[in-house]
Amino acid sequence: MSPVTRSSSSSVAEGTPHESGLGPRTAAVLVFGSSAAVLVVEIVALRLLAPYLGLTLETSTMVIGIALTAIAVGSWMGGRIADQVNPRRLIGPALGVSGAVVALTPAVLRTTAEWAPALLLLIASLTILVPGALLSAVTPIVTKLRLTTLAQTGTVVGRLSGVGTVGAIVGTLLTGFVLIARLPVSGILIGLGTLLVVGSALVEWRTRGWRGTPALALVVVAGGLATIVAPGGCDAETRYHCARVVADPDRGSGRTLVLDGVRHSYVDIDEPTSLKFGYVRAIASVVDAAFPQGEPLAAHHLGGGGLTFPRYLAATRPGTRSLVSEIDSGVVRIDRDQLGLRPDGGIDVRVEDGRLGLRRLDAGSRDLVVGDAFGGVSVPWHLTTVEAMTDVRRVLNEEGLYVANLIDHGGLAFARAEVATISRTFEHVALVGKPSDIGLDPTSTPEGGNLVVLASDRPVDLRATQEALDARHTGWKIATDDDLTSWIGDAQPLTDDHAPVDQLLQPYSPRSSR
Fold this sequence. Notes:
The protein has 514 residues and is of the alpha/beta class. 53% of the residues lie in helices and 14% in strands. The chain contains 18 helices and twelve strands. The protein has helices at 3-15, 24-53, 57-82, 91-115, 120-136, 138-146, 153-182, 185-207, 213-229, 278-290, 308-316, 329-337, 354-359, 386-395, 413-425, 462-471, 481-488, 501-504, and strands at residues 236-237, 242-247, 254-259, 262-268, 298-302, 321-326, 347-351, 366-371, 396-408, 428-433, 449-456, 477-480. The strands form two sheets. Strands 7-6-5-8-9-11-10-12 form an eight-stranded mixed sheet, with helices on both faces. It has a four-stranded antiparallel sheet with strand order 1-2-3-4. Helix 10 (278-290) packs across helix 16 (462-471) and helix 14 packs across helix 15 (413-425). The longest helix has 30 residues, at 24-53. Residues 1-20 and 509-513 have low confidence and may be disordered.
């Protein structure tokens, strides 16, 4: 026998250990669907964890890292086990168990966050790792079933890898652009869990009968029921937030807008001049001192929330036109449906990114720009840089004023860097806050929280500003000139090329108020 004949015979013998019983279309559907499901779980996990861990770069990095770990472990283990066990016995259980875990995830995470927060990271990791690994194991298992000859190895592996990648892309786009915009995250996961269990049932029916499927179906139903009674629910799940509106028990017309567990805005529907949060009173004091009383303004607001300050301007300065850039259409809907926003109130809300909204404004078109945009408890990094401040300065007129709300804790590293950034752009800058936080009381340790920075190219009457702060009983003081320079220290300005906002921010409690 010639070497060529021996090689050919050997290849066929090694490549056909069993009949696959799995057509190319079925294989493609399984790989496509399982890959898409992994990305759905990853993206939705971010939404589930944001109310408890914050929507930060660290949270996103952690979830992505866990998902990639799950993909790596699942791919490796799936291929290894498929070489030792009949692959046809593996697909159904992988889909079914992952579906059951996915369906239980909303109830489990929310209950853990409320009753055992110390275990949240562990439980969250498992709810991503387990289904992610099981679903990622499907591709090597299916590949094993489709390899009937070594002569087609490259074709089969390449085709299924491509199909899996396309599935991941579709899962990402479908979740980000469609599902989260239309469905609550609990509904997405319960629906996905149901689909996976149905897929498991179909695979089991074709290979081994219906064994195990009824029990998994009961788990999915249990997950749905548990989600209904689990703590931590939302009045509305928007594109970016878990949102609730809480009535003020001491004031019938008072409402607090809570986003991802953080109190973002307090609104008195009947009395818009009633300002509860200290930082809002500070912003009002700064603006009232900077412009003649009752004078209407052309204002632009970066971030909307409950629109507390635009309402205040409309009430105290009739004729004021406030343009608001609010990225979350769900929050705007809450403003209209639950917080009494009227279309004739002089407030024009645009659903848009704040940086892009600035670019659309004409130069010198605004008297006032207010920065109050937050993702979780941090200012979106692209609104903190020298380049962003240059855009703010461009849209302000010669007498214009920029006022921004900052949140930081501990060493206040982010706040110092942001004030350094603003100082590079504007000629006159001052910082308003508790004396211990702004360096005016060196005997006290900074507590952190809210600070308000004001900036302009014309001098601001700081004496009048302090009188306004005192009249509102804020207890806040003003740091400027040498005091402010000393407070900033060696903090470096933030730029589009380097703005490590999430790293500079000090640890915070997601349940602390703004």
